[in-house]
Specification:
Elements (H helix, E strand, L loop, with lengths): L5 E5 H14 L4 E5 L1 H5 L3 H8 L5 E4 L2 H9 L6 E3 L7 H9 L1 E5 L2 H8 L9 E4 L14 H9 L9 E3 L11 H21 L6 E3 L3 H6 L7 E2 L25 E13 L4 E2 L5 E2 L4 E6 L16 E4 L2 E4 L9 E4 L11 E5 L5 H7 L4 H6 L6 E5 L1
Parallel strand pairs: 1-18, 2-3, 2-9, 3-4, 4-5, 5-6, 6-7, 7-8
Antiparallel strand pairs: 1-10, 10-13, 10-17, 11-12, 13-16, 14-15, 14-17
The protein binds pyridoxal-5'-phosphate.
Pyridoxal-5'-phosphate binds next to helix 9.
């Protein structure tokens, strides 16, 4: 018998969430963001499931892009942080990778390369996040140099990234949208190009809550995996379906007397005579070690709170109030009926991190 810890990955939920992104922004194309192993879900599998529907994929670096090409994914792949060295320009040229340009060095590498095809470039402008991107005053010069290079496709995408779009009604997002719109308009006026400038602003939060940020291209990430980056129950998040359901089983059961302690360090003390179930999942399987006592799990549809410190391969949960619990019963750690965001809150983190930290050790099983 195999160890029962596993992550079910639902094909239909993934396709459904992508459709939600399309329906919310029907005039936009989408780059599906599948960096960091598709937020822990498995980049190749996610790309295979979405490939027919998406226009392009987005990853953090060329190694992630190459993994997808080797697996037979043919759609364009956007390198969200651009090139890390000049050698990568030649690889992108050969492999049809698209790239962000966000600084002078990346621009120079492209302008001085010997490309056989014209590279698709996304010019990133810093409108307020202050992490990546050229300054608003530099946009025209960068755009012109790219536009007049034979190495670069003329349809350059002007793009930016939001710092706080997950906060509904955030004034800084409004500022970023207005600044980006002004930059686009003055670029268009000064270049007198004729054609419109292609743009991209929205990540998941932008798609879900900021319709004025929908552009030619959107870049959904977290929402594809069925969770909203926004405050609970706001703006369309309830349309999403969790893609990953993390499951395991009860492997041991015991009664503990009131006053007895459970687990490493004895950091949970029974306040009454209690029934404790041991579940075959731990921080070695991606369940956060920092999850506090009381973090919910589900056993036979009822909430069983975490009772004791998370070990590498096991957790202990309080099943005193659940009827007829047996060894072999299934336990849901997150997913259907138990949002990963809720579990992450008990571990002082966010759903993004909990999903992305899912290690290779945990079997991914593709369902429906
Ligand atoms: C440039 C860029 N676009 C889009 C995304 C996707 O963001 P989200 O997962 O919040 O949709 C990311 C993720 O960090 C990003 O860095």
């Amino acid at each position: 018998m195999a160890r029962p810890a596993k992550a079910l990955i639902s094909k239909s939920a993934l396709r459904h969430n992508f459709k939600v992104a399309q329906q919310l922004a029907p005039n936009s194309n989408n780059v599906a963001i599948i960096k960091a192993n598709a937020y822990g879900h498995g980049a190749v599998v996610v790309a295979q499931i979405l490939e027919q529907d998406v226009q392009a994929f987005g990853v953090a670096c060329i190694e992630e892009a190459l993994e997808l090409r080797v697996a037979g994914i043919n759609k364009p792949i956007l390198l969200l942080e651009g090139f890390f060295s000049q050698e990568e320009v030649a690889i992108a040229d050969k492999m049809n990778f698209w790239t962000m340009v966000e600084n002078q060095q990346q621009l120079d590498w492209i302008l001085t390369a010997q490309c056989s095809n014209s590279l698709k470039v996304w010019l990133k402008v810093d409108t307020g996040m202050h992490r990546l991107g050229v300054q608003p005053a530099e946009v025209e010069s960068f755009y012109q140099q790219l536009h007049s290079s034979n190495n670069v496709d003329k349809a350059i995408v002007l793009t930016t990234h939001f710092a706080s779009a997950d906060e509904s009604d955030s004034p800084s997002t409004k500022k970023q949208i207005n600044l980006f719109t002004d930059i686009k308009q003055s670029l268009k006026a000064s270049l007198n190009l004729g054609e419109d400038i292609v743009t991209s602003m929205a990540n998941s939060a932008g798609i879900l809550a900021w319709p004025q940020a929908h552009c030619d291209w959107n870049r959904p990430g977290f929402m594809l995996y069925g969770n909203s980056p926004l405050d609970r129950n706001t703006s369309n998040g309830d349309m999403l379906k969790p893609v990953m359901t993390l499951l395991s089983e009860i492997i041991s059961l015991r009664e503990v007397k009131s006053g007895e302690q459970v687990g490493y360090g004895g950091n949970w003390t029974a306040k009454r005579d209690s029934k404790i179930a041991t579940v075959a999942i731990g921080y070695g399987d991606g369940y956060p070690r920092i999850a506090k006592n009381g973090t919910p799990t589900l056993v036979n549809g009822s909430v069983a709170p975490l009772a004791g410190r998370v070990s590498m391969d096991m957790i202990t949960i309080d099943v005193t109030d659940i009827f007829d619990v047996k060894i072999g019963d299934e336990v849901t750690l997150w997913g259907n009926s138990l949002p990963v965001n809720e579990v992450a809150e008990h571990a002082s983190t966010i759903g993004y991190e909990a999903l992305t930290r899912m290690p290779l050790r945990t079997k991914r099983i593709i369902v429906d």
